[in-house]
Structures are given as structure tokens and as C-alpha cells.
DNA sequence: CTCGGACGACTGAGATGCAAGAGGGATGCG
DNA sequence: CGCATCCCTCTTGCATCTCAGTCGTCCGAG
């Protein structure tokens, strides 16, 4: 937010990061109609790279471009929450199946990585570091998906997590109201099932996990 | 291919369609490094809209942009075939579960639409109309996914089918070497299972169906 | 004959300029 | 005072221009 300019990368990348960050952290509020100039001016860029960034963000579903009108920061609708949860369920369940059926070596490696992520989460909770917690949470799930899915689904999953991050921030204002412990416990349960190669059990845990996420996002009136 | 100009839509759209069509029908061969001018010149456009089209196609995975070098028409690798098949399996299986658990009304409607698609396929086979056959095949699956998945997965599935289309054309030169009957039979079997709300059975049929597709794409040396 | 460095053509990244379309507010009329 | 209309501004779409990086080629030295 502060270092608007003099960032690394191409102009397009800078515009992309700036805009995406703005959307994710809420400084570009959902439902707002933003213009290319709004991004180009503070970054001291021309509109060309901004346009390319907008296009990319539209492909990710964070923006919706209206001809001659502007770019709408798509609001997180209830439907979208459901869609994201559904997609996560489908993809992560698949990953579970694959990992549970993998060789010992692969399974061990994945479980180790996921265990480490959980440890990071616990550390983040004690340090009261929101960002680190979210990052570790993301890592936990990403490791699973990376191990169990091919590139295509993996890419989809990546953009999914971005949207979910935004949902959390939008609905909860960035707070995880005491759900941290529950999340960690569910992660541990998932790991247990995975370690035992109990795919149906792991999927069940995942489903409950996602149901909890869904509830905390949808059911939170405010703070 | 013939009507290069005077098409409807914005310049960006025209560039997008032109390039995508070229990639899908093979006139822009996979592995080739194409330049913006190559598309802009025949369409009598400037390079700006072409660039935007390239960006979009990169997001869909059909192109890979190399800075200052050009745009690579990504070759259909064995890995990509596997990835597409995997993703289709995951998404369509999920759709099957959802549809099989849906209300009678929904199920009936979906089955009716899919039955109609199969009928179209049969008609296309007798008419020896490749294009219509592929279109009907696509419709068959799309109806299923549309009924069983929310927007997000549906979008993913859409781009999936494009890539698959390209794989077919690339590997088989557009021919379906006598597999048409098999495809129709498998579609019918899938419909039977679906009609009986036998989700596991339907998934099994689907898996075999996709295995057949995979084999015909990967394992087909020629005709 | 082969290898290496420099030159030139080509390509994309980004900036700028112009024109068309959409919306909102002021204005004139009933 | 309410409403339809016009105009003015804002925003994007696209073209054009400049700059920088990359690659192929050519020429000379060993």
C-alpha cells in the first residue's frame, strides 16, 4: 500500500499486484466501479499496463469489465461463496483420494509438509499473527492439492484461494473470531485420516471443515 | 478463416476469435512462436487489441507469452491430456452426484436434454457430419455439468472442453476413427445409470468413457 | 574451417493521443 | 413543480509512436 512505485517487475505486474491487493484488502471496496486511471495515476503508469492487469483480474473473477463504463469490483455474493466452497470440496476431495492411494514415500512427504504447516499455524496463533496464520492455512491445503492434482486443477485451486481470502476479509473484516483452534483441530483430524489412508474419512473431515468455513463466512453478521 | 474482416464485435473480440480458431483448427500449429503482427495484419487491426486477445488466450492456457520473444502455441503434451482428463473426471463426477441426488423434476429435465443430445449425435453419425457430432457430444456433457455445478466449476469446464477439442484435432487430425458408435453407447449407458439415480454406476461409466477418450487421443498412432 | 563478437532487423512493452459511447446533471418546456 | 431533452464530462477502445531487449547473421581473427 505504501510502496506504490519502484517495485520490481514489469509495469503490468505492478498494476496487477496493486489492484489485486487493493481488492483483497478492501481498499477498493466490492461493488465499486473503478477506472483505469484510478490505478494508473498513483503508480505513475500509463493506462496500457493497467488495462492488461484488469483483463487478468477479470479472468480470475475479481473484476468485471463494463465497456465504456469501468471495472466493477465484483461483490462477494452468497452464490459465489457456495461456488467456491463447492469447488474447493471437489478439488480437495480428489486430492485426498489421490494422496491416500499414493506410495508410502509420497504420502509420508505430504503428511510431513502438512504437519509442518499445522505447526506454523499453532505458532501463528500464539504469536497472534493473523497473516501468518492465514498463510499457513493456505499452505496446508495447497500442499495437499499440489500432491494430488495435476497442473490444471492446481491452477484453478490457486485462484480459488484468492477469492476465499477476499470472502474472509469481506465478511469478517480480517478477523477469525476464535475459529483458529477449530481450524487447527480439523486440520489435525484430516491429517490423521490421511495418515491412515482413510480417504472417505478424510473427505468427511474436509466436508465438515468447509462447512465450518462456509458458516463463518456467511453467518457472520459483522464484528 | 475466409471472413477475416467485417466481423461483428470489438476489435479485441475479432482478434481473439481469429487466433483461437487458428489454434483450434491447426492453422497456427502447436509449438509455433507467433507474433502479434501475424494476427494484426490480416485482420487490419493495430497490435493493441491483438495483445489483449493473446493475454486472454494465455489465461485459457492456449498460448504462452514470452517477453520480447513472442507467443508460443502451447503444444498438447501428454501431461496436459492427462490433466484435462483428470479435471473432466473430477468435475463431471461431481455433476453426476449432484444430478443423481436432485429432485425428480430436475433429473427428468437433464435426462431429457442429454437424451436429445445423444439423438443429435446419432443423426450426425448417419449424416457423417463431424462438426455436428462433436458439437452434440459437447452439449451432452455440458448439460450434465451445467445442471450439477455452480458457475465457477462450469467456467472451468468450458475452457476444458476447448482444450480437449484441440487435443482431438491435434492427435487425430479431426477424425474420430470409428469411435462414434462407442461414444454414443457409452453416453446411453451413462444416461441409464443416471436415470436410475445410480451415481456410482454412472461415475464408473464416465471413467471408462474418459479412459476411452484418453486412449484414442494418446494411443492413436494414426487411424 | 571454426569460433566469437558486433551489427542490424524484428518484436514486444509501454506511453500517448484521439474518438466514440454512456451517464449525470443542468436547462427549458409544459 | 415535474419531466423530457440536451450537453458536458468521464471512461474506455483503438491507433500510433518510441524504446528496449532478443535473435540471426555477417565478418574477422585464430
UniProtKB/TrEMBL annotation, chains A, B:
<dbReference type="InterPro" id="IPR011711">
    <property type="entry name" value="GntR_C"/>
</dbReference>
<keyword id="KW-0805">Transcription regulation</keyword>
<dbReference type="GO" id="GO:0003700">
    <property type="term" value="F:DNA-binding transcription factor activity"/>
</dbReference>
<dbReference type="Pfam" id="PF07729">
    <property type="entry name" value="FCD"/>
</dbReference>
<dbReference type="Pfam" id="PF00392">
    <property type="entry name" value="GntR"/>
</dbReference>
<dbReference type="InterPro" id="IPR036390">
    <property type="entry name" value="WH_DNA-bd_sf"/>
</dbReference>
<feature type="domain" description="HTH gntR-type">
    <location>
        <begin position="9"/>
        <end position="76"/>
    </location>
</feature>
<dbReference type="InterPro" id="IPR000524">
    <property type="entry name" value="Tscrpt_reg_HTH_GntR"/>
</dbReference>
<dbReference type="GO" id="GO:0003677">
    <property type="term" value="F:DNA binding"/>
</dbReference>
<dbReference type="InterPro" id="IPR008920">
    <property type="entry name" value="TF_FadR/GntR_C"/>
</dbReference>
<keyword id="KW-0804">Transcription</keyword>
<keyword id="KW-0238">DNA-binding</keyword>
<protein>
    <submittedName>
        <fullName>DNA-binding transcriptional regulator, GntR family</fullName>
    </submittedName>
</protein>
<dbReference type="InterPro" id="IPR036388">
    <property type="entry name" value="WH-like_DNA-bd_sf"/>
</dbReference>
Amino acid at each position: 500500500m505504501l510502496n506504490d512505485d519502484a517495485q520490481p517487475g514489469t509495469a503490468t505486474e505492478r498494476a496487477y499486484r496493486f489492484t489485486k491487493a487493493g481488492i483483497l484488502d478492501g481498499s477498493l471496496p466490492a461493488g465499486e466501479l473503478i477506472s483505469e486511471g484510478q490505478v494508473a495515476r498513483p503508480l505513475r503508469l500509463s493506462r496500457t499496463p493497467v488495462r492488461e492487469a484488469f483483463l487478468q483480474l477479470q479472468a480470475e473473477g475479481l473484476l468485471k469489465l463494463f465497456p465504456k463504463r469501468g471495472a466493477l469490483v465484483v461483490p462477494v455474493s452468497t452464490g459465489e461463496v457456495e461456488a467456491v466452497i463447492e469447488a474447493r470440496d471437489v478439488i480437495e476431495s480428489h486430492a485426498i483420494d489421490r494422496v491416500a492411494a499414493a506410495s508410502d514415500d509420497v504420502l509420508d512427504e505430504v503428511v510431513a509438509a502438512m504437519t509442518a504447516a499445522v505447526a506454523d499455524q499453532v505458532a501463528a496463533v500464539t504469536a497472534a499473527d493473523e497473516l501468518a496464520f492465514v498463510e499457513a492455512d493456505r499452505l496446508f491445503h495447497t500442499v495437499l492439492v499440489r500432491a494430488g492434482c495435476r497442473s490444471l486443477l492446481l491452477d484453478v485451486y490457486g485462484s480459488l484461494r484468492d477469492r476465499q481470502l477476499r470472502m474472509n476479509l469481506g465478511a469478517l473484516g480480517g478477523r477469525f473470531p476464535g475459529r483458529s483452534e477449530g481450524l487447527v483441530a480439523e486440520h489435525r483430524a484430516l491429517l490423521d485420516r490421511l495418515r491412515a489412508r482413510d480417504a472417505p474419512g478424510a473427505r468427511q473431515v474436509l466436508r465438515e471443515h468447509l462447512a465450518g468455513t462456509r458458516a463463518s463466512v456467511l453467518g457472520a453478521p459483522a464484528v
